[in-house]
Amino acid sequence: MATWSNLNYQNSNSPLMEQIIFFHDHTLFILMMILILVTYLMIKLFFNNFINRFLLEGQLIELIWTILPAFTLIFIAFPSLRLLYLLDELNNPLITLKSIGHQWYWSYEYSDFNNIEFDSYMLKTNQKFNNFRLLDVDNRIILPMNNQIRILVTSSDVIHSWTIPSLGVKIDANPGRLNQMSFFMNRPGIFFGQCSEICGTNHSFMPIVIESISMKNFINWINKY
């Protein structure tokens, strides 16, 4: 979970989020090198007592500051393209979950099972003891870990966004359109998210909660539903 002192990404709970964090660290390292180099050159120029009044052009310098940024962009672009293709890759999903955004709650349908659908509302602070304020819900999404999950997202009114930061998932919920994405949870736990598209007065009061459990417990949950 995010905390006030956390200035970085949340800990990854999926292979996709791990790749996003790797790309972030890779790009940040390159940006820090650029910042240090430019700062050093500016300081050297500011405190330089020698001025060449007859310098009109410097082809070598212009060649260097054209080639260096080009190589820098290549080192950033290739990992970025790889990550974009990983985001689009869709393996055969074990389960398909449909999420419908409303003002201001989410409803879910398990397309592979009959009669499993429910609404998910944020819990009030006095409804449950020791719950996470403004993050917990009355009906959590129950999904099995170590399996490919497909999520279909749409909206019944305005644009919403279904987001779980620790899984690296963020999908817009547009009225009259189905968006899809797949994710893979590699450990059990409870993962929190929120609507990430300003959708009205109660935009911040429609959280998302996924409970990742083992396949055996998931089958028991399906049978009891």
What does this structure look like?
The protein is α+β, with helices and mostly antiparallel strands. The protein contains three helices and ten strands, in the order H-H-E-E-E-E-E-E-E-E-E-E-H. Strands 3-2-1-5-8 form a five-stranded mixed sheet, with no helix packed on it. A five-stranded mixed sheet has the order 4-10-9-6-7. Its cofactor is Cu cation. It is found in: Mitochondrion inner membrane. It comes from Acraea poggei. InterPro entries: CcO_II, CcO_II-like_C, CcO_II_C, Copper_CuA, Cupredoxin, Cyt_c_oxidase_su2, Cyt_c_oxidase_su2_TM_dom, Cyt_c_oxidase_su2_TM_sf.
Gyration radius, in Å: 24 Å
Strands side by side in the biggest sheet: 3-2-1-5-8
N-to-C span: 29 Å
Mind summarizing the main beta sheet? 5 strands, mixed
- By CATH, the architecture of the largest domain is named Sandwich
Strand content: 25-35%
Q: What sequence of helices (H) and strands (E) makes up the elements?
A: HHEEEEEEEEEEH
Report helical residue fraction. 25-40%
Quaternary class: single chain
Helix segment tally: 3
How many beta-strand elements? 10
**What is the 3D form?**
elongated
Q: If you average the pLDDT, what whole number results? A: 86
Top-tier CATH class of the largest domain: Mainly Beta
**Structural class by sheet pairing and helices:** alpha+beta
What's the CATH H-level superfamily name of the largest domain? Cupredoxins -  blue copper proteins
CATH fold-level assignment of the largest domain? Immunoglobulin-like
Unreliable residue stretches: none
- How many domains would you count in the coordinates? 2
Catalytic activity: 4 Fe(II)-[cytochrome c] + O2 + 8 H(+)(in) = 4 Fe(III)-[cytochrome c] + 2 H2O + 4 H(+)(out)
Subcellular location: Mitochondrion inner membrane
Organism: Acraea poggei
Family: Belongs to the cytochrome c oxidase subunit 2 family.
